[in-house]
Amino acid sequence: MSAAVPQTDPASHAELVTLSIDGVEVRVPKGTLLVEAAKTIHTDIPVYCYHEKLGPAGLCRICLVEIDGMPKLQIACNTVVADGMKVHTRNPRVDDGRRAILEFFLLNHPLDCPICDKGGECDLQDYAMAWGSGSSRMIDPKTSKPKAVDLGPTIVLDEERCIVCQRCVRFDQIITREESLRTEDRAVQTIIATATGKPYVSDFTGNVTELCPVGALTSKTYRFRSRPWDNHRTTTSCTQCSVGCRMHVDERGNTVLRTMSVPEDDALSDSWLCDRGRYNVGFVNDERRLTMPLLKQDGAWVQIDWADALDLWAEKIKAALAAGGPERIGAIGGGRLLNEEALLAAHLHRALGVENLDHRIGTQTLVHHGSFANHVDLENANTIITLGRPPSQLAPVLDLRIRKAVSRNGARLISAGDYAADSFVPETHVTTPAGLKDAIGANPGRVAMIWDGVFFEGGPELTAAMHDLPAATRVDRYVLPETPNGRGAEALGMIPRGAGLGTGAMFAAARDGKLDVLSILGANPVLRYPDRALAEDGLRATPFVVVTDLFLTETAEFANLVLPVCSAFEKSGTTTDLAGDVLPVVGSVRPPDGVLADGDLLVELAERLGVTLPMPDELEAKVRELVKTPPADGAVPAYVRATAAAPGGALRVIADAAIFTGGGTLAFDTAIRELHARPHARINPATARALALADGDPVNVAGDNGTTLYDLVVRVDERVAEGAVALLDGVVRAPLNALGRAPAVRLEKVPVTA
Amino acid sequence: MSTTLITPVLTKGIGELNLREIAVYREQGGYEQLRRAVVELSPKDVADICNGSNLRGRGGAGFPTGRKWSFLPKDAKTRYMVCNCDEAEPGTFKDHMLLEETPHQIIEGILIGAYAIGCDHAYIYIRGEFKRGYEIMRDAVQQARDAGFLGENIFGSGKKLEFTIHRGAGAYICGEETGLLNSLEGKRGEPRLKPPFPAIKGLYGEPTVVNNVETLAYLPYIMRNGPEWFAKVGPERSPGYKVVSISGHVVKPGNYEVPLGTTIRQLIYDCAGGLRPGRTFMGVQPGGGSSACLFEEHLDVSYDFDSVTKAGSMLGSGAMVVFDDTTDFVKAAYTLIRFFSHESCGQCTPCREGGHWIQKTLERILAGGGVDSDVDVIKSAAHQLTGLNLCALGDSIEPFLASVITRYEDQFRAYIKRTPAPAVGAAS
Amino acid sequence: MRKNLFNVGALVRGMSTTFSYMFKKKPTVEYPSVKKQHAPRFHGLHELRRYADGKERCIGCELCAIACPANAITVIGAENSPEDRRSPGERFAARYEIDELRCIFCGLCEEACPTDAIVLTPRFEMADYRRGAFVYAKDRLLVPPEAGVGTPPDERPNGIPADLGGVFRAKDTVDIAEGYDATHRGHILKTQRRGLTLRQAKGDDGRPGEIE
Question: Could you tell me the pTM of the whole model?
Fold first, then answer.
């Protein structure tokens, strides 16, 4: 089943063959599959098991065609074109064959189209209309199988509807390489199941519901909520991480019901979506969304009018300017805003002379640092080096490119430093400079280097080998922003310049009483800033803090004024992906009444402050120009991750990321609660032995600053260095940043109470 | 009964000698041809001898063995030889006997074949149910290893020939060569999509030849007696000897080794002792469960690959199942269909769904719930699922069913009319 | 004058027609005190039916909504939970609304329904002063559990349903002074008194009551 997908890239095959399909002469590259060749003349050959990205499997047998000179009907999905081939896709013999296959499919397929989520967009329905007979010749009862089988936290399987095309199984084998699905039993009892019998868990589970040509695999979040014809479709870019996958948003009655991948999007998503992009949509309609500006008065929240709120904000800024000058004002955020909004925020503040601007709330130093190499370049790299938190944690769909590059194009994957790449493909994990040099070898070919933007002790030494690459080596650098539009925000000016303060320095200055107004635009530093105590102290000491967010987040709790804003589904503009491309964002639903976009607020604020903003028609050109401008080198690290052993037998902490950790939209989305990562503590087997801990044990993590994180689960993993513990960052219930900037921790086993 | 028809080659000594002992086998000239091949001949010489004998595969498809070997890419570094001993075709029991009685002959054949294709690791895939055969083979391999016939440096020639025994888990589909390879790799025993064929991309993705036990076992004898000895027996295009498993309503069922070209009548009446007294002949499956039934008018068909095919059936693995007039063909058809439907791997649609449909319909007919249209429906269902499948299993459903429905439709109709099955023989 | 005299015959003929109708039964009925019989396949207010075990027939498939030429139907499905099973299968209609002002009573919803859940009853009285009141949701469409399963579409009664007091015939009269359940088992409308008192006429002459 590990059939390699034949390359049908026209560029790689100069040689063309000529064949005739239904009498039409077709010239296609040698090696093309017949089913693809037919597409060039818009001839529809029905398929179920074949999929462009998965290749042929030859299971469904519906794609029958007649080829002159062949005694039997042939399947178009596994027939490679040959010169002079004469193919008939429609004649009585082919029709009979397809009718026969359709009859077999429908024998045991339940007639529950009216309640099936796929009804209306189902290949089986479509082809049954074309080839099926109106009634069944089978008079016996249909085979009954379990319905609504819980396959995992996201997917429900209807075994009766399954036509065993095995697209899902092959997706898991060929694309994600996780091999967690398989077929079980045989003959007419064949069903889809997980190989381990445990729930189907992966970061990409949702894709199988789209691949499924029938309604056998459905998403829990979309089950029975709508029929396809009710949905209004908008095509936008996903703003959940920095990959920016193109995606369809299906909306009904101003509710975002689901997001779907765009099959034509070869450039970014390769037609896949990760589960966060697919399932984190419920927050848009959550009833806890803020809809009115909130002002804190005497420790309690009071709803106020927009005009009053904006006036207050402007007054405070004016007062601060008058009292102490622009250095007493700061703004944090931008990584979750659109390009235009980030540009307006930077422009507005710089016009007032404010240089205390920063989009970085986490551990990253630079993100607009990558080259402008795109995802397809990564796929074609020969040597891929990951440094720091890997793409599987920060940019899941990018990780699929790595899996493809390694499994299909034969690239080598090297992970250096504290983090393994975790890509389900063979990787070489190195921790020493010599190891990295060896792993790269003398002939690295095209190199792609993926960095999470975090400086760490010993980093320059570890990566020294990168400077010794052969001179002609092409090196593509990718930096994975922690926030969806981190790269855009940085390029558009949300970064301190000159004497401007960064996020940490702003908090420190605020704590020391040197800051009067702090505007936090769509950011949650209390959960994300590496030193939570500092962030909290800074916010507490600032006389006026404005927070714009959808929800009353951890940071908003410290604000004086909270302004409700639009989600990315409710506004239009552009965002910047990790490769430095400007992508369109198209709003699909109306925001709740009384909610404005960050951009609207900034325009209003600018008006009140007498600042002239760029006109809308100038914005786009300006965004493109700035995003495409390579950054100046020589940034001072905002944060340096410790790699030295912690003193006194304590463990040093490595921060893990996961796509389903975080506050805000994730924490407030009730439908995906099951997907939230249970906070783990990954430790080396040796460490586990020394501490008498086993996989699955509950532990408390006691930090050296007196903070303890409670009830984490131990995961024993040999890829974690000895003397270290990897903890999930951004978990609301066990926030890693509460432990401080460079914590040394101890694990305490939770006694099991009877 | 004419015993002159029976010409023991592979079956020689069975029942008389303990050929499971390497010493006994060597006394009969065993392993001499392997030594000769490895020490004296080049792989090409051995392949040429095989080609010259015009040996056709004894596993079912009857593909010329030499040609199969020639499909291997010339420049492949690693190749594999796999011996298919997953004999599960209904009615076939020749490999079973050879495995249990003459394991060394099989080992020698496999090793000669492996040498001829230039492979240094051969596998034998033994059906899971052949526990005793597996144990015998295991002991025999140990004896051969001790004797230095396999492993490193065989016969002191410096050549390496490894040998692995793999036990299946009892799936009929693993007798299909690509299903067998998947099973051998530890995967689900499902046939693979072809192309690529095993000769290009087989076991572990390397070029692989899969041959039947009997095919390979003939190799030492062809080597010993020369290719002409084999090629001149029987019809020109399908020469040689064949172990035929005869079962069903005959007096003496069993394995009979005969030259191809013997007629079916001779096999039934001369070798197997004919039908039981007072019974009339109703039909015969000449090549196992997958083959169409032949009737009286075909009794004088020559038993060789081409003639049987011309008569509308196939020689298959050489398993004759004889039916006399006590046969209930509805039940016979149902038993076979249930087998095929149960053994379907479930991958491709026509076989998975169609087989089950026919099985359910026959079940209902047998239970007395048949309706008039059923006969036409199963005929048409069987016909329309044929030729559309991923592997040959699905195509095995139609032949027997269609041939007996056409011939004995009255038996099916009788069930549908809820009258007792017309036990033709009982009445006469 | 002479001419006119000659026309007396015409006058008599004309008046004879008039007089002949004076003694025939009047076709006009005094609605609402008197109601006429419907045509057998009259399409009136919708009803969502149940199965005998009390489960809702509607599976929320929205086929009625897509069939509706007037876009009058809104359905939002949801999944049955084992604790609260509303319909036999996996899916039920969490919301089912028909805008009876938009509805053209064509009956295509009934045709489209795969479970015979939505049917059109002969009930037609649904007047109200508020437009919003014409959006009928499940609370008014669904047959109450105690009222049986609803009317199968092929057994549509010939006339006004029995639960409205039997089939009214033109000769019957009813005292609406008390108000009565105009449509559906008390769900919908109570006829309002508007300062008129109707006295029920006695006898079987089919005449309406007098207005005082």
Answer: 0.90
